[in-house]
């Protein structure tokens, strides 16, 4: 899976400024809904963690967090936190890695459109039975570059439901809200929670 060069260069160049702005923002409603589903001490992968704001918040709540991001400059925000970090894209995630839950806050939209299905399948394969994935993404069907030259692939609820279903996950919580990006561009934020059935879940009748 490729990482968009211009997007990565922006976050490397502007990591300090970006993180200082984001630190002042509220978490979306998805975050609390996600946390409410986690069992005590659950292992969580923060995929596309950026400067680590969500990872640190999860750590403070007692969860075992691993943070992954392709930008070393962004990951530097977690230096000294004790949170394990992985610098790279989804291909950098060990094949045998397993987590009780995955958090993807506005990260999947930066993956090239042709790569998302495979990337999401790989991400879902890291979720243990009964686990949850939380996705925040720009809603729509367009691919755009913003004024800061960052790549954004917007996705519809239907498309994400289909991709998640192919990995055995069922979407059971959806919300939307108007939002505004770092550069002031307005968009509709789409929030999804999807779950894998537990090991002992009954199989549907043939």
What does this structure look like?
The chain has 206 residues and is of the alpha/beta class. It has seven helices and nine strands; from the N terminus they run αααβαβαββαβββαββ. A seven-stranded mixed beta sheet has the order 3-2-1-4-5-9-8. A two-stranded antiparallel sheet has the order 6-7. The termini are far apart.
Summary?
By secondary structure, this protein is of the alpha/beta class. 28% of the residues lie in helices and 29% in strands.
Q: Any key phrases for this structure?
A:
206 residues, alpha/beta, 7-stranded mixed β-sheet, two-stranded antiparallel ribbon, 7 helices, globular
Largest sheet: 7 strands, mixed
Strand order of the largest sheet: 3-2-1-4-5-9-8
Mean pLDDT: 93
Query: Shape from CA axes?
Result: globular
How much helicity do the residues have?
Answer: 25-40%
Number of helices: 7
What radius of gyration results from the CA coordinates? 16 Å
Report the end-to-end length measured between terminal Cα atoms: 37 Å
| Number of extended strands | 9
Strand content: 25-35%
User: What is the H-and-E element order?
Assistant: HHHEHEHEEHEEEHEE
Question: Helix/strand/pairing class, anyone?
Answer: alpha/beta
Uncertain runs are none
Q: How would you summarize the topology of this molecule?
A:
Elements: H1 5-13, H2 15-22, H3 29-37, E1 43-47, H4 53-60, E2 64-69, H5 72-75, E3 85-87, E4 99-105, H6 116-124, E5 127-138, E6 143-145, E7 151-153, H7 157-166, E8 170-180, E9 186-195
Parallel strand pairs: 1-2, 1-4, 2-3, 4-5
Antiparallel strand pairs: 5-9, 6-7, 8-9
């Amino acid at each position: 899976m490729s990482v968009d060069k211009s997007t990565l260069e922006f976050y490397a160049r502007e990591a300090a400024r970006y993180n200082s702005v984001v630190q002042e923002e509220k978490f979306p409603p998805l975050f609390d809904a996600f946390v409410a589903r986690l069992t005590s001490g659950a292992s969580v992968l923060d995929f596309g963690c950026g400067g680590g704001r969500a990872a640190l918040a999860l750590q403070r709540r007692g969860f075992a967090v691993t943070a992954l991001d392709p930008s070393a400059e962004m990951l530097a925000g977690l230096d000294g936190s004790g949170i394990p970090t992985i610098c790279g894209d989804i291909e950098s995630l060990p094949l045998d890695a397993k987590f009780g839950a995955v958090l993807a806050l506005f990260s999947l939209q930066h993956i090239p459109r042709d790569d998302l299905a495979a990337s999401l399948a790989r991400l879902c394969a890291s979720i243990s039975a009964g686990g949850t994935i939380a996705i925040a993404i720009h809603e729509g069907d367009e691919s755009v570059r913003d004024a800061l030259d960052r790549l954004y692939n917007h996705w519809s609820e239907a498309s994400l439901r289909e991709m998640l279903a192919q990995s055995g996950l069922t979407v059971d919580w959806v919300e939307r809200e108007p939002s505004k990006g770092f550069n002031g561009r307005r968009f509709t934020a789409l929030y999804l929670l999807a779950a894998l059935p537990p090991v002992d879940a009954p199989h549907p009748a043939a």
